[in-house]
Amino acid sequence: MIATYVFLAIAAIPFIYYLIAIYSSWRYFRRPARTVDADFTPPVSNLKPIRGLDPEAYENLASFCVQDYPDYEIVFCIDPDDSAVIAVVEKIRRDFPRRRIRVLYGSGRVATNDKVAKLARLVSEAEHEIVVISDSDVRVPTDYLRHVVSPLRDPNVGAVTCFYLPTEIRSFTDLLQTAGMISDFYPGILVAWQLDGVKFALGTTIATTRTRLNAFGGYPLLENGPADDLLVGRLIAGQGCEVVLLPYAVETVPDYDSVRALVAKRLRWMVVMRHMRPLGHLGLLLTQGLPWSIVAVALHPSAAVAASYLGAYLGLRVLMTWMVAVYGLHQRRYWKQMPLIPLWDAAAFLIWLASFLRTSIRWRGADYYIRDGKLVPVKQPSLTHQDDPA
Fold this sequence. Notes:
Distance between the termini: 66 Å
Radius of gyration: 22 Å
CATH architecture of the largest domain: Alpha-Beta Complex
CATH superfamily of the largest domain: Spore Coat Polysaccharide Biosynthesis Protein SpsA, Chain A
Order of helices and strands: HHEHEHEHEEHEHEHHEHHHHHEEE
Helix content: 40-55%
Largest sheet: 8 strands, mixed
Oligomer: single chain
CATH topology of the largest domain: Spore Coat Polysaccharide Biosynthesis Protein SpsA, Chain A
Number of domains: 2
Structural class: alpha/beta
Strand order of the largest sheet: 3-2-1-4-7-6-8-5
């Protein structure tokens, strides 16, 4: 009997995490918004590494060409044999002849992480000290550069990042992915902000300087590893600089063609996190309210326990999501995702368990081990004479 009560006490720990997440979200979003300094408009290099054509690629890239900002360039780094991407970039150049656009073909490097290799070249050939890096599926408002560059006026700020939201939700997969992002990923980010400050960046936006990047060795240091955006924020914060997370959102175009693809990407990220932050990854168990609540009811099947645990779980999870989506990001449309929270939590828990069974990740059509923060290709067994299909 005592063991049952001990377990019930442990099963309530996720509720403490939920309360911290709610408080952290409330505290973050209630702060006075940073004022955009209209007089601080240094020249900027927008850096865009591209591999493959994203959905609505033209609209995404064109949004960077109509910024309300006086002096900036856009530099693309693309593969020389990617005709689809080249066609879109050339159309961008034709449609915006007054915008300074440069195109670099290939990274000129041999690296496991092609995106980071491209970024290494982009940073080295950028004309300006301030660089704004973003993924190729990002679409931005016209005031984007003013918002993300303005905090860099403070010499103590080393980098700026921000939230992102989908342009639209067109499928069940989009609904599920958005439910996970708003109810799980963003609350976790805000808890990290509350407890330890921002020591990460999101790949949808990293505004920083070449000096800050070069101070830790730059992208060449990261070109053979995963999670470059996370590491850039960590390495800049390690210089004693502030990494600013703005309560400002850009958009991304959903590109998951199936739930299977969404699960595969989440599993890959979980495996990466298990290698990069093993204790933090293990500690995720104490943030999983749904499985703990189900087991609590199974061990002590009473109406009181069911109402207490399942009721607290559902109430706190909905409040967490409301705090981020509606109160913080002013996105009332996310009420539609509320019923999917338990489904996401169940899937996330199973993926977390599966991450301990994986020794490699599948990325861009190839398999890799993670060794000391590096991606190491999984060597395929060579064919013997007997195995030779020829």
